[in-house]
Amino acid sequence: MTNGLLKIRGLKTVFYSDAGTAAAVNEIDLDVRQGETLGLVGESGCGKTVTALSIMRLVSPPGEIVSGTIFFNGTDLLTLSEAEMRRIRGNDISMIFQEPMTSLNPVFKIGDQIAEVFRIHRDMDRRDADAAAVDMLHKVGIPSPEKRAGDYPHQMSGGMRQRVVIAMALACDPKLMLADEPTTALDVTIQAQILELMNDIKRNKGTGIILITHDLGVVAEMADRVAVMYAGQVVEEAPVDKLFQSPQHPYTIGLLKSVPRLDKDAKEKSRLHVISGMVPDLRQLPRGCSFQDRCPEVQEICKNDPALEIKSTGHRVRCWMRE
To answer: Among 13-22, 59-68, 92-101, which stretch is predicted with the lowest mean pLDDT?
Structure first.
């Protein structure tokens, strides 16, 4: 893979419970190049966040990575010690977590928490680290950054806390950034500012980005390629333009049909498309294709496991109905 930054092969992460074992990430393959944004989409519970946590080696019991490889810059992260991973986290690989209140320490000031990133990974003294922290708050659009650096997390709104988390993730110009719903709590003007900041870092630093989001509009604007996940597996992957213009997997088609569109007449607008049924219990997946109970194209062959293969359209698709 040209300019390969991240190469995941056969990654499987499971969660144990008395009711059984759930494969939240089920033998997935993903690649991210330098300066590329990979959009990771799908319904809640399909494995997107667990994929990111697995890359960061932050899956905790009862979860466990049981197989696969995660090569970052040629090194398998799964073979590193915890001390070696700590040097990589926040420096070479950073993550924007979905819940900012759980990502920030409630008893430390915002500025101190950002400055700590610079002191640990950039070996700055206290004064320079504090100045760099204020500069990052300014870059993510927080007003009066010098003053707000002295605030505690509970003194900030949800949107401001999210921007603080983004500032921490961007602080050390990471080679790979994992962004889990990075703009969910932000209004549209701040959202646009944050997305532009992420794009600037990608262009100027060659940072690779995995963008996890439910917002297909953000994916269309930001991503170079898109991987669609369902029940712990990648079911389709394609360049963003191809995926939006010609989705192949029935699940991807259903997702895109569910997005409201302005180019429909009033009658069509009043009826939003829904995907029937529910995501299956990961502890009791059906034999064969995981989507078969909800699929409008299901056939007898779907009781056998389809492989994720490159089809004639150039998409990688996990479906028997596509050639």
So the answer is: 92-101
Cα dist from 91 to 101, 119, 172, 184, 307, whole Å: 21, 11, 6, 24, 36
Which residues does 318 contact at the CB level (< 8 Å), separation at least 6? 233, 234, 235, 236, 249, 289, 306, 307, 308, 309
What pLDDT does 3 receive? 66
b/e map 22-56, b = 16+ CB within 10 Å? bbbbbbbbbbbbbbbbbbbbbbebbbbbbbbbbbb
Q: How far apart are CA 137 and CA 133, in angstroms?
A: 6
pLDDT (tens digit, 9 = 90+) per residue, 39-74?
999 998 899 999 999 999 999 999 999 999 999 999
Q: What is the pLDDT of residue 267?
A: 56
pTM for the model: 0.90
Distances (CA, A) of 108 to 104, 116, 151: 8, 11, 9
Chain centroid offset of residue 94 CA: 12
- Angle of the 110-121 helix axis to the 158-170 helix axis, nearest 10: 10
Query: Which residues are within 8 A (CB) of 259 and not within 5 positions of it... i.e. 6 or more apart?
Result: 216, 217
Prior bond to 62 cis, omega within 30?
yes
Alpha-helix runs per DSSP H in the chain: 48-55, 82-88, 100-103, 110-121, 126-139, 145-148, 158-170, 188-205, 216-222, 240-245, 250-257, 266-269
User: Using CA atoms, how far apart are residues 295 and 161, in angstroms rounded to an integer?
Assistant: 40
User: What is the pLDDT of the chain when averaged over all its residues?
Assistant: 91
